[in-house]
Specification:
The protein is α+β, with helices and mostly antiparallel strands. Among the domains are: 164-253, Sandwich (Immunoglobulin-like), CATH 2.60.40; 256-346, Sandwich (Immunoglobulin-like); 353-431, Immunoglobulin-like (Sandwich), CATH 2.60.40; 489-600, no CATH class. Helices cover 20% and strands 30% of the residues. The protein is built from seven helices and 40 strands. Strands 4, 5, 7, 8 and 9 form a five-stranded antiparallel beta sheet that branches. A five-stranded mixed beta sheet has the order 12-19-18-14-15, with no helix packed on it. GO terms for molecular function: transmembrane signaling receptor activity. Residues 16-25 have a biased composition (Polar residues). It holds the Pfam family Ig_2.
C-alpha cells in the first residue's frame, strides 16, 4: 500500500531527564507553541473523537466533527513527536533509489530561513522542497535541513548504480505534455502482472493507478497530470522490494515543446526535437543551451552524436511553424518552449554477449561488482513475445529462433541489457547454418578452380600461337621471299596462271626473263625451247646442289668482281661439289625415247 511518509524511522522522543525537567519557563516561553500544551490538546482531541464514535446519531455534523478531530489529533501527535524540530521527508517513498530516478526532499516544519547541507557542505537551495532529478551516485550522502537555526536529523540517500527489475517506458512524444493531455506508459515485467501495482505522485500527493493488461507480462498504464505541474509514475511488486524505473511527466502551457526531458547515457546520441502542439509544421527551429543559441535549422531536430557531461545544461527551443495541414494559407507563428534540464549520466554498467560456438552464448559484465554473479537471459520470439528463461548461468545453449539478450543479476538490481544476438538456426542445433557455410565454401573453391583452368588454357594457347609465329619466321629467308627447301628430286613451279604462249603445258606461268638475255635463274626459270628445256608438262628442272647457292638481287650498273651475269651478286661460295642434275638425265632419257619412237 502506497503512503507518503518519510523514509526511515521517525526520530525517537528524547528521554525525560532531570535536566530536561529543569528547563526554565523563560526558554519554554520563547517557543511559538508550548510542547506540553500541544500534547494535552492532542490527547483531548483523541478523547472527543472516541466519545463521538459512541454516538448513535449519524448526522452530517457528527461525521464532519469526527473527521476534523481525527486530522487534528494526527497533526498534533506528529508535531509533538518532533518537538518542533524540522524533519526531512523523501517522496516518492521508493524501496530503493536507482540511477536516473527523480527524488524530492522536503524540509517539514516551521521557521525561516531554510538551509540545506549534503555531507556537511551547504547547498544553494533555500526552499523547503528540493527536487533531485535524474540522480546518480554523486547524490549519495546525508541531507540535513535547518529551519530558524534548528537542524533536522540526517537523512541518508543511497543511489544504486543499477537498473530496477521492471521497465516502464514512454511512448513517442516525450515527457512534456500540454495541459489536459496524458500518456500511455508500457510496463514490461518478467512474471504475471497480477502481482504488480502502479503509483502516481502528483506535486505532494500519492495515488494508486490501475494497470491494463496487454499480454501475460505486458501492461499499459494511463498517466495524466490531473492539473499538476509535475507527476512521477512507477510500479512495484506486492510484498517485495522489486519495482520499475521512474517516469516523470511535466506540464507546459506553451504551444512549443522540447523533447525529450529524460536522462541521457554517456556516449550515446542525444536527439532533441522542437515540436509544435497540434501537429504544426516547424519551418525553422533554434535550439538554446543555457540561453545561448547552439543550432539553427530548417527542421525540428538537433542531434548530438555522442553526448558527454559537457553537454549538461538547461535547454530550450524556439520554433517558427504553421498549421499547414489545416490550411495552406495558415499564418506563421513563433513560440518558445519551456526550459528543460538535460543531464548526461554514466548509467548502470552494461553486460556483453558473445558467441562461443554455433549455438552457445556467453554473458559477462566487466564493470559490474563482484556480487553480480548470476545472469538473466531473455528471449524474444519471432512473434515479438519476450520471456525470461530459467537459466541463470553465464552460458546459454540456444535452440529456438529469435533474439537473445542478457543482464547481470546483482541481487538488488541489474546491469543494463547486453547487445542482441539473433539466432536463425534449426531447432536442435543450428545444422542449417553449417550446411549453408559448407555450400558457400564449396562454391568458392569451384570458382577458384574454374578461374585457374581458364588462366592455364589461355597460357597454353598463347604459347602455341607464339611457336607457330616463330616457325613462320624461320621459313622466311628475309624480305618478301619464302625459303624453298630443296630436296633431291623436288620439282617446283609458280602457281600464277598464264595466258597464251607463256602458258606451259601444265597450265603454269613460267617466270619472265629480263632484258638481259644471259640472265640466270636459280628458281623457276623460263626455257626458250620447250621441247629441249622443258620436261613433260612444261616444268623447268631445278639444279640440285648438295650445298645451296644463293644470289642477292643487286641492281648496280657495274659488275664488280664476284657478280654473276643477269645482275645478281653471287654470294661467296665455299668448296662445294656440284652434282649432276638428275632432271637433265630424265630429259635425256625422254629425248632418247622420243627418238626411238620416231625411228620406229
Amino acid at each position: 500500500m502506497y503512503d507518503q511518509q518519510p523514509v526511515g524511522q521517525m526520530p525517537a522522543k528524547a528521554p525525560s531527564t532531570p535536566s530536561h525537567r529543569a528547563t526554565s519557563a523563560t526558554s519554554i516561553a520563547k517557543k511559538p507553541l508550548d510542547v506540553h500544551f500541544l500534547s494535552h490538546l492532542s490527547s483531548l482531541s483523541c478523547v472527543l473523537f472516541l466519545f463521538l464514535t459512541r454516538l448513535t446519531a449519524r448526522s452530517a455534523l457528527v461525521l464532519e466533527m469526527k473527521g476534523f478531530l481525527l486530522t487534528l489529533s494526527v497533526l498534533l501527535a506528529f508535531t509533538r513527536e518532533n518537538n518542533g524540530k524540522p524533519n526531512v521527508i523523501q517522496t516518492p517513498r521508493y524501496p530503493s533509489v536507482y540511477v536516473g530516478d527523480d527524488v524530492s526532499l522536503k524540509c517539514a516544519g516551521t521557521g525561516e530561513p531554510i538551509k540545506w547541507t549534503l555531507n556537511g557542505k551547504p547547498l544553494s537551495t533555500s526552499n523547503s522542497l528540493m527536487n533531485l532529478t535524474m540522480v546518480t551516485t554523486a547524490n549519495n550522502g546525508e541531507y540535513i535541513c535547518e529551519r530558524n537555526a534548528v537542524k533536522s536529523d540526517a537523512h541518508n540517500l543511497t543511489v544504486l548504480e543499477l537498473e530496477p527489475y521492471a521497465q516502464l517506458s514512454l511512448p513517442p512524444g516525450g515527457a512534456v505534455i500540454p495541459r489536459g493531455e496524458a500518456r500511455v506508459l508500457t510496463l514490461q515485467v518478467d512474471e504475471e502482472l497480477d502481482k504488480w501495482k502502479c503509483f502516481a505522485f502528483r506535486d505532494t500527493a500519492g495515488f494508486m493507478i490501475s494497470i491494463m493488461p496487454d499480454g501475460m507480462n505486458v501492461g499499459r498504464v494511463y498517466a495524466d497530470l490531473n492539473n499538476a505541474q509535475r507527476a512521477t509514475f512507477w510500479c512495484k511488486k506486492s510484498a517485495s522490494t522489486h519495482r520499475s524505473n521512474v517516469v516523470t511527466l511535466m506540464m507546459t502551457e506553451s504551444m512549443v515543446m522540447l523533447e525529450p526531458a529524460t536522462p541521457v547515457l554517456k556516449e550515446q546520441a542525444l536527439t532533441l526535437r522542437c515540436a509544435a502542439w497540434g501537429g504544426g509544421k516547424v519551418e525553422q527551429a533554434t535550439f538554446y543551451k543555457n540561453n545561448n543559441s547552439i543550432h539553427v535549422g530548417n527542421n525540428d531536430i538537433f542531434t548530438i552524436p555522442s553526448a558527454t557531461e559537457k553537454d549538461n545544461g538547461q535547454y530550450k527551443c524556439q520554433a517558427i511553424y504553421r498549421f499547414s495541414h489545416i490550411s495552406q494559407q495558415a499564418a506563421r507563428k513563433t513560440d518558445e518552449s519551456d526550459p528543460q534540464q538535460i543531464k548526461v549520466i554514466d548509467g548502470p554498467p552494461a553486460a556483453s554477449l558473445v558467441t562461443n560456438y554455433e549455438t552457445e552464448l556467453e554473458c559477462s559484465c566487466a564493470a559490474c561488482k563482484a556480487d553480480c554473479s548470476t545472469y538473466q537471459w531473455h528471449h524474444t520470439s519471432t512473434s515479438k513475445t519476450r520471456k525470461r528463461l530459467d537459466n541463470t548461468d553465464k552460458t546459454l545453449h540456444v535452440d529456438e529462433d529469435g533474439s537473445y539478450t542478457c543482464r547481470a543479476d546483482c541481487g538488488n538490481g541489474f546491469s543494463r541489457f547486453s547487445n542482441v544476438h539473433n539466432f536463425n538456426g534449426e531447432p536442435g542445433g543450428g545444422g542449417k547454418v553449417v550446411v549453408i557455410l559448407i555450400a558457400i565454401v564449396v562454391i568458392f573453391l569451384g570458382l577458384i578452380f574454374i578461374v585457374m583452368a581458364v588462366i592455364i588454357r589461355r597460357r597454353h594457347r598463347n604459347r602455341t600461337t607464339g611457336r607457330i609465329k616463330d616457325e613462320g619466321k624461320k621459313d622466311k629467308s628475309g624480305g618478301d621471299y619464302e625459303q624453298i627447301g630443296l630436296t633431291d628430286k623436288g620439282i617446283y613451279h609458280t602457281l600464277a596462271e598464264a595466258s597464251g604462249q607463256e602458258k606451259a603445258e601444265g597450265g603454269y606461268e613460267a617466270l619472265k626473263k629480263t632484258d638481259d638475255d644471259k640472265a640466270v635463274y636459280h628458281t623457276l626459270g623460263a626455257v626458250e625451247e620447250p621441247s629441249e628445256a622443258q620436261g613433260q608438262g612444261g616444268y623447268e628442272a631445278l639444279q640440285n646442289v648438295k650445298a645451296q647457292v644463293y644470289q642477292t638481287l643487286s641492281s648496280g650498273s657495274g659488275k664488280p668482281e664476284g657478280e654473276a651475269e643477269g645482275g645478281y651478286e653471287q654470294l661467296p661460295q665455299k668448296d662445294v661439289t656440284v652434282e649432276e642434275n638428275p632432271y637433265e638425265e630424265l630429259k635425256a632419257d625422254k629425248q632418247k625415247k622420243e627418238a626411238t619412237q620416231e625411228k620406229e
